[in-house]
Amino acid sequence: MVNYSELTSLLNNSEVKYDEPLKKYSYTKTGGNSDILILVKSTEDLVNIVNFANINNIPLTILGNGSNILISDKGIRGITVITSELNKIEILENNIVTCEAGATLKELTDILIEEELTGLEFACGIPGSIGGAIFMNAGAYGGEMKDVVLKVETIDKYGNIKIYNNEQMEFSYRHSIIQDNKEIVTKIYFKLQKGIKENIIAEVNDLNKKRSDKQPLEYPSCGSVFKRPEGHFAGKLIQDAGCQGLTVGGAQVSTKHAGFMVNIDNASCEDYKNLIKLVQEKVFENSGVKLEREVKIIGE
Question: For the chain, which terminus, N or C, has the lower number of CB atoms within 10 Å?
């Protein structure tokens, strides 16, 4: 048994919970319990958590804000960290903005509007944390994180702070080097441009309307389930294969946007996994295209 009291003595003000239901922190409202859940409130505490996990050989999972993931019904073993309290945003000189990884894209967008800084409007409605957006090189409406990132600070598994410039991040479609080196994003530097407040607001409102018109925001979901296959659109392939409205347990392929799977009736992670597999099979049978999962499945 791990003596977690030793870990809690190393933390300043981060909140610690045991055997916590993770469905409370997941956008799909699915998932089992965590062994220990920490709502981390400082980078220093996060470094201590990383070191403790490494020394004691304990699995460490960073949830961020819980979007674009499915958490196993059996939960997550070891330490699970929620970063939503790491959300400090600062405006520097030369239109550079720093943002801790737990801040949401909406929180950042609201500040950028007030500061009249443009360049990140494309991401205004993407759910989840900035750290998760960097991890996935999130994008929408013709823009991606790689277009506006100057540099990224991380913590490696030994608790060392590292810094990557844009090129070193190896951004590509829904990919960054963080997926390969398993480091933890702590802070992002964005390089933006001065804009006109009214124009920025108009762009944000327009994109948010497009999202609400096209996406099933009225149900819990994990966002886009599949990556865009080269030369195709995942939603169109799913629709053409007759999968729209397909339901397994409480999980359903959205009738509003076939690229989304929604939780319509207390879905489990297994419901989602089985629905994903079924859609992949039907799309391949219909079109010969293999859909690759974008959503991450984590936990036991």
Answer: N
